[in-house]
Write a structure and sequence with these properties.
- 46% of the residues lie in helices and 15% in strands.
- The chain is built from 22 helices and 17 strands.
- Helix 10 links the parallel strand 9 and strand 10.
């Protein structure tokens, strides 16, 4: 599904009006009906909250909230709307919706201090269901002291809080906040999800995102330059595995890394490649860590030693021809010979390369970036936020403030796929497209999870090279896009299953590997469910 920033959302609304006659009032009514139905079905029919509290702003976000409240009255719920702005400040739609809501029995209260809301919560003991309809994605920070205090009061007292379009205090373009923001358990996205849900404080405050149809034509919301991936989408992308193939049909992945005390990283990456279906996997490591590697390596995976003496590297050029894809970096180390080896294999190897951890650091200078840009075969770089900031020579806060722009800048500079890992993971394609994977999971914050991801992407790319990683061209432009996106999604979904079965505290990187099978099972089941009859 398409993900938009504030400017793109305004353009969608303008196009919908000019080309399809979809007026603002009709969109508000659609949100009112569908939002009320969703709140009734998912929350209010299952638990009693007493009065439903609406926090109403002065723009269309407030009008949407009043429309939802009016339709909730039709279900028989008691609804109270706190109008936070004077009628003279509010839009025409807010005034119109307030009049209709009042006529339908919604209690309307003008509020000019947070103390009035505090007094309401104190006097009416119980659990409170709060709908935040103060400001939408067009918010301008900082907030006024009044709204700041209203948010703090809401965060203290709301038993369950649903934000309309975006939590008040969070920007739609970057998920940033200043001082305070509504802590929503759920966010009802109007029409399409917004970029701000998936980064910085937006990821911490938006809760679970629920998409509400606003009536936009399907082609306007199906796909754009930024898209959200999910189970149904990936089920359409992935094809069947050939039951008559043999191991060589599914590619040979080489994982290059490991150093004394850090061979675990390369072992995890190799197992990630194996578990996603790479037919063969080999690990190559330094001679001073080769013994340690073979003590930890499982028997399905082959191994090779790399001399530290550069004069003995002549075998590499021909040796690399045996592999379909290369994963470099997990545990590699940042010593001088690591940088030299990395540059050599990038020049000699003619297939797709995944770069993780130490490999990213080793190529962060201008020479390294020129080398990446000049490669004819795909390069996939997998930094977390800190590594990304160092690689791009930006501060972490600057990246958080503009994740999409920062990603596109570096993708253009190195002409590579770049995966910015986090609670919301951004995948930048060389074509300029960005895909977002949003499956936050505290259990993934464990050593080695990034190594597993690098190996998984490498294993999927190996199958793409041998043309056995099938994909649907109606949803992905090529096998590289499909493999990279699938790797990120399966990694997250396996982590979700691991968290359910082991708990987030007990999760390790091995837990992710051990649950890859369940992720593929989910995709297979979903594929059956969406298959047309006949």
């Amino acid at each position: 599904m398409r993900v938009v920033n504030t400017a793109e959302m305004k353009e969608m609304e303008k196009t919908a009006l000019e080309e399809y006659g979809l007026e603002e009032s009709l969109i508000i009514e659609n949100i009112g009906i569908r939002g009320a139905n969703r709140l009734h079905e998912q929350f209010l029919s299952k638990k009693s909250f007493g009065e439903i509290v609406l926090l109403i702003g002065k723009g269309n976000n407030g009008a949407d909230g009043l429309a939802i409240g009016r339709h909730l009255r039709e279900f028989g719920y008691r609804v109270r709307a706190f109008m936070l702005f004077d009628e003279s400040e509010s839009s025409k739609e807010v005034g119109r919706q307030a009049k209709m809501a009042f006529g339908m029995g919604v209690k309307i209260n003008a509020v000019r201090s947070a103390g009035q809301i505090e007094a309401y919560f104190q006097e009416n003991q119980g659990e409170y269901f709060v709908v935040d309809a103060i400001f939408g994605t067009g918010i301008r920070l900082p907030l006024s002291n009044f709204i700041h205090d209203v948010i703090k009061t809401t965060n203290r007292h709301a038993s369950l809080c649903v934000a309309l379009d975006i939590p008040t205090g969070i920007t739609g373009d970057a998920g940033m906040s200043k001082g305070v923001a509504v802590r929503a358990d759920f966010t009802l996205a109007v029409g399409v999800p917004k970029v701000g849900y998936y980064s910085a404080n937006g990821a911490r405050h938006s809760g679970e995102v629920i998409i509400l149809s606003a009536g936009f034509p399907k082609h306007m919301i199906r796909k754009g330059s930024k898209n959200l991936i999910g189970l149904e989408f990936m089920s359409k992308v992935l094809g069947k595995r050939n039951k008559f193939a043999h191991k060589n049909s599914f590619g040979h992945t080489l994982v290059l890394g490991g150093s004394p005390g850090q061979v675990g990283a390369v072992v995890l990456a190799a197992n990630g490649a194996l578990k996603v279906g790479s037919g063969l996997v080999t690990v190559a490591t330094w001679e001073d860590s080769y013994g340690e590697l073979n003590m930890k390596l499982n028997p399905e995976i082959m191994s090779r030693v790399i001399p530290k003496d550069e004069s003995k590297w002549g075998f590499l050029s021909g040796y690399l021809d045996n592999f379909d894809t290369l994963v470099v970096g997990p545990g590699l180390g940042q010593r001088k010979e690591s940088k030299t080896l990395l540059r050599k294999v990038l020049m000699d190897f003619m297939g797709p390369v995944v770069l993780d951890a130490d490999a990213i650091h080793c190529l962060s200078d201008e020479e390294g970036k020129r080398l990446l840009k000049g490669r004819k075969q795909p390069v996939i770089i997998t930094p977390h936020l800190g590594e990304f900031a160092a690689f791009t020579q930006k501060t972490v806060s600057a990246v958080e403030a503009a994740p999409v722009d920062s990603l596109r800048e570096i993708v253009d500079e190195v002409n590579s796929y770049v995966i910015l890992k986090g609670p919301g993971t951004y995948i930048g394609f060389p074509t300029g497209e960005i895909f977002i994977n949003y499956m936050p999971n505290a259990g993934m914050a464990t050593g080695g999870s990034g190594d597993v991801l690098a190996g998984m992407i490498g294993g999927l790319l190996a199958q793409a090279v041998t043309k056995n990683q099938f994909f649907n061209p109606n949803y992905m432009s090529n096998e590289w896009d499909a493999s990279v996106t699938l790797g990120v999604f399966v990694h997250s979904l396996a982590g979700f299953h691991a968290a359910e079965r082991t708990g987030v505290r007990a999760m390790t990187a091995w837990s992710i590997i051990n649950h890859i099978q369940y992720a593929f099972s989910d995709i297979g089941r979903s594929k059956q469910e969406i298959r047309p009859k006949g």
